[in-house]
Specification:
single chain, alpha+beta, 2 domains, Endonuclease I-creI, 280 residues, four-stranded antiparallel sheet
Length: 280
């Protein structure tokens, strides 16, 4: 995770720690979520824990019970649990929510998260219960429910920016690949045109082929659409003309076309040779 991402996570925890529940039941619920143990390294969270635990001690007759608690109390409890045992990772463009708790608490926490619509899974890792959720949409819902609106907006803005950069890179890569293919095709076509021009076959081709060949030589960088617009022809006609040029050049390269042109001359010369032999 980059420094900016770590700073964002720190800002998220500070934002949550700055929330001062207005209801006594919410303060009790958040204190219960924080638990009796250490709550992390942030001074803001440590101060919150001291303040809430003192308040909860004064209203000990109001124990927190998830089963009957209201939505606001549940949100307060989850906020406290996240501050005490939760972490958020934004590395690699993925939002990853994790709680590290006692092994026996893992399934219970998964059930409570499911109650607010957050799918999560639980496992035991090195003797500790680990509850994770990797759904970016669900994690966004969780942050919104526990009051992290400012940090959530920043997370969503970064996700949108990252998605736009990814789409831009995809488009640029596709355009680069298309350009490379066009340059390679134009090079083949110019070589083929030069071959046909050198052996005289270009001059006997249909007019559209000659026109396309001249246009290609004049504008090697032009696309098929550009050539078609320049000549006032259909793109398909330009493509067929260039394919014909390449095909004829390949025929000349393997000798088949030249052999076919020389065959009539050989056939015409044979009777003369036989006649000469007979006279001799």
């Amino acid at each position: 995770m980059s420094r900016s991402e770590r700073d964002l996570v720190t800002a998220l925890r500070d934002e949550l720690a700055a929330i001062d529940p207005s209801r006594a039941c919410d303060r009790v619920a958040e204190a219960d979520g924080l638990g009796p143990g250490p709550v992390g390294r942030e001074p803001s969270v440590a101060r919150l824990a001291v303040r809430l635990r003192r308040g909860a001690a004064r209203v000990a007759s109001m124990p927190f019970d998830w089963a009957v608690a209201g939505e606001h109390c549940r949100a307060a409890w989850l906020r406290g649990r996240f501050l005490a045992r939760g972490s958020l990772s934004l590395a690699g463009g993925r939002t990853h929510l994790e709680f590290v708790v006692q092994p026996e608490e893992g399934p219970q926490l998964v059930a409570r998260l499911a109650d607010i619509g957050l799918p999560a899974s639980s496992r035991v890792r090195r003797g500790r219960g680990v509850v994770t959720s990797k759904s970016g949409e669900a994690v966004g819902l969780f942050l919104r429910r526990i009051g992290a609106t400012g940090a959530l907006l920043e997370v969503e803005a970064r996700q949108v920016s990252r998605a736009l950069r990814g789409e831009l890179n995809r488009v640029l890569n596709a355009e680069s690949a298309n350009l490379q293919r066009a340059v390679s095709a134009a090079g083949r076509q110019l070589d083929a045109i030069a071959t046909l021009d050198a052996d005289g076959r270009l001059a006997i081709q249909p007019s559209i082929v000659r026109l396309v060949a001249d246009a290609r030589r004049a504008t090697p960088e032009a696309s098929l659409a550009d050539l078609a617009e320049r000549l006032g022809a259909h793109r398909s006609a330009v493509q067929r003309a260039l394919e014909r040029v390449e095909r004829l050049a390949l025929d000349a390269g393997d000798g088949s076309s030249r052999g076919s042109r020389d065959a009539p001359a050989r056939r015409r010369s044979r009777p003369t040779q036989r006649a000469g032999h007979a006279v001799a």
